[in-house]
Amino acid sequence: MYDNTRPEVGSEARTLSARHYTAPDYFQQELEKIHYQMWLHAGRVEQLPKVGSYFLIELGMESVIVLRSEDQGLRAFYNVCRHRGTQLCQHASGTLPGKIQCPYHAWTYTFDGRLINAPLMDKTRGFDLRDHSLQPIAIDTWDGHIFINFAPDPSPLLEHLADLPAKFRSWKMEHLRQAAEIVYSIEANWKLVIQNYSECLHCPLLHPQLQQLSHYMSGENDPPRPTYLGGRMDLRDGVETLSQDGISPWATLPGLREYERRGVYYYAILPNLLLNLHPQYMLTFTLWPKACDRTDIVCRWSFHPNELAREGFDPSNAVDFWDLTNRQDWEVSELAQRGISSRAYRPGLYSNREELLSALDRFVVERCGAAD
Amino acid sequence: MYDNTRPEVGSEARTLSARHYTAPDYFQQELEKIHYQMWLHAGRVEQLPKVGSYFLIELGMESVIVLRSEDQGLRAFYNVCRHRGTQLCQHASGTLPGKIQCPYHAWTYTFDGRLINAPLMDKTRGFDLRDHSLQPIAIDTWDGHIFINFAPDPSPLLEHLADLPAKFRSWKMEHLRQAAEIVYSIEANWKLVIQNYSECLHCPLLHPQLQQLSHYMSGENDPPRPTYLGGRMDLRDGVETLSQDGISPWATLPGLREYERRGVYYYAILPNLLLNLHPQYMLTFTLWPKACDRTDIVCRWSFHPNELAREGFDPSNAVDFWDLTNRQDWEVSELAQRGISSRAYRPGLYSNREELLSALDRFVVERCGAAD
Amino acid sequence: MYDNTRPEVGSEARTLSARHYTAPDYFQQELEKIHYQMWLHAGRVEQLPKVGSYFLIELGMESVIVLRSEDQGLRAFYNVCRHRGTQLCQHASGTLPGKIQCPYHAWTYTFDGRLINAPLMDKTRGFDLRDHSLQPIAIDTWDGHIFINFAPDPSPLLEHLADLPAKFRSWKMEHLRQAAEIVYSIEANWKLVIQNYSECLHCPLLHPQLQQLSHYMSGENDPPRPTYLGGRMDLRDGVETLSQDGISPWATLPGLREYERRGVYYYAILPNLLLNLHPQYMLTFTLWPKACDRTDIVCRWSFHPNELAREGFDPSNAVDFWDLTNRQDWEVSELAQRGISSRAYRPGLYSNREELLSALDRFVVERCGAAD
Prior knowledge:
The structure is a homotrimer. In chain A, helix 5 crosses helix 9. In chain A, strands 1-10-9-4-3-2-5 form a seven-stranded antiparallel β-sheet, with no helix packed on it. Chain A has a seven-stranded antiparallel β-sheet with strand order 11-17-16-15-14-13-12. In chain A, strands 6-7-8 form a three-stranded antiparallel β-sheet, with no helix packed on it. Chain A is an alpha+beta fold. Chain A folds into two domains: 246 residues, Naphthalene 1,2-dioxygenase Alpha Subunit, Chain A, domain 1 (Alpha-Beta Complex), CATH 3.90.380.10; 114 residues, Rieske Iron-sulfur Protein (3-layer Sandwich). In chain A, strand 16 and strand 17 form a beta hairpin. The first copy, chain A, is globular and about 80 Å long. Helices cover 23% and strands 26% of the residues of chain A.
């Protein structure tokens, strides 16, 4: 039924050597050259419903306050007081009462980061409130997704997203609302999570349930792009969606075209968003690298508000299906992490179904250099 | 009511750069150049009531036996057998039966450290009991406080204490007896604990209870000294002591002068004792740095023996007040530790109420060099 | 009754300096130069009763599959798929169904390591199944003991064992069967465990029960050998075995000679097997170094199958005795580890009862160099 019609690959495409996955210094390099330079998925606009709403993002040693400002705009700042360095906010999310006040000595900042009060600093020569604003971080949104960028002067988010906004316009993601969230903490390098997501060669053995709903050889990948990797798979005949039973209790999203209703889209927007679009819902995985061998993954299921408003709405048919599938993926990714750490590990050959993985390897090595 | 009449400070006085608080190698340097060179508060004489009483001190990789010898004098030794290096004592405190015997091969030492038995060493050529005494550590006392010094030939404790014995003679600390102890383990650098203790600029926001009893602008600091930093704050009118309700169930210590009865004394005797003297009780914080971002703090409340002997004596009015205040301080110190670890942290300007913090910075940099 | 008739030792024989026990880099050196080069005790043949039976060995970052192959022979392989490095087996032991299949992409290997299936690799130019066999590890057995060797081309196990097979032939260890197992995890360097095992100078103080059954000055050691260290101790008159009460509910092993029935044999087969032979049972300790200051110890008690088949068979008289003795030994070894970590630790003199410890020191330094 499905032939392996993709072009041949050469034997020069091999998995990366071990240090790319196991060396703490290479991991630090990746943070510096990739995560602190590129647009990162931070969350969803709906998490900041009103002025003063905020949540924290933690990456490496950095803590970032993402908030809604008085002008309804979104802002992001390093969570560091300019006096003695104290973290200003400590709860993962909440609402700030009109200003950001340091809990230590009451230095007070506006929602656009200006220092407006610094008690008893009048006897310090040369002190000027204007010199001690919070340090801003670039922030932008796309169809309800919030992205931040640690780089001082980043290129626009739209440039990063390339043709994706046009490609995924039909989903009107800005209208979707979160119905469930699971945070996973796994003992594997962040690249192994993206690589696992970027091929379905493993599906027949690892995900028999998924394989029954969507054939692993179906669909096609886009050619690898500089900032994203992705493709589409088809739902089998008679299957309405990816869920425990393949049946969808939820209406198809309004505005989807016919072929968009018969497939599932798997895109890795580098370096930290896995965007997974279904005919009835959106699934996102936001990856937070914690160490060379540890990654936190925030997984969110979002539906159309009409569905959430419906009496008896229940996302569990999709949540349970993916929670099972996720755990299968995390477990095998952890096995990969451990095996790669062995002295016996040697870079292996890729099949022609793993061209996106090879593209990720090149993406990383171009930015961080080859380890060893 | 209180004006900020202290002299202006210049903008050259800034907080230390991050590595002073976050680099494991700088922390190791601090142990070597500060803690292993200076007099350290180890505990109280009353902890060693009789011959053979001992307690252990742990700092870095070092374990020290502090004991009362046959001549009633105090001794301190490295807790290391001269045979194969085994730790001689393993319990935090206790009583030794007339000698120190290694649990491994029964090498046996007197309370002044001499090896008196080493079974079956007679066939080792050149072995002489006299060559294998325990390695001593300097020990001395001041008004009931025990200090030890890892340096081979330290200058006298009295020199280290400078004018403090005269200044605090009225409290007759050697008569006081411990009524409560809490050990805290916090995730912050030891310097942040001293810095938190050395200014009350944070009190109005962080300690509203304390602020009601003692105004944060009251009192005055001594000029910074080479071995200690400190000052005094006033009790507000009608306030008898620092306690939950400002009322003292305990008599004022005999011998205090009038102005000593109306204030609280906050002294940091470098590098590890925070001495906090109240009209009715003594509070001490003994700091044990564990890592660049971790410190154990032994907090002890001591009262006059007449009070402890009184029926229904209850220290909780003071203990609960300080336990709450301490936890507020530890939490904000941990926030400072985390914020300082950010790439966004820059040394900030001090106010003229933070001159003791700046003095601590200079003390550290003089001994250990500037990091970066 | 027992004189210390062993020859004198010189004062040049001293314990190793601290870094040999406390430096992570020296520990890594030991793994490379000792454990990854020498024959290691892996377990017992009875653990692999049938074709497909397997267990895993974990050392450093390495995981090894030890299994019984179709030809009934034993095989060992690195637990690493040749595709993308995934660990093939994740449970500590079990049975494999006719082949070794990677759980990720179904690459499939025979029990002798040949790759026989690699789905969808046909479009990778130059891919040949024969180039991707599992990486083998040397394996051999001695009287029911399984040994593995990470070295690519090791000298024969029999050479390593020297005269031990002849010396311990009477025990017919291949017939014995395991009746109990305890795994200990202790905070001490692996060498301290061997050193503790290699002298009984500590027995009178640390093991009063053992001392009642077997006098610490009894017996004699073999001269140190390049690959093992050991000796024998005598049972006291009237004592049948080492057990809680010195009485043996079990028959003496058939085939033991008279003097073998009146002693206990303590041999350290370097670097990781402590073989402890009693007249009625075998006790083994398999040491797995985890870090410079951490060792896992698998302790097994094995008896004659006639005893295990006897109604009411109960090994606890021996298990409880040794579990108590072991815990005494582990505790004092942990005290040694901590004391050696002190700056006060200096290499100490050995007695003439500790010549095997000195031999172990030389063994390590010859292979790994002297630290410092």
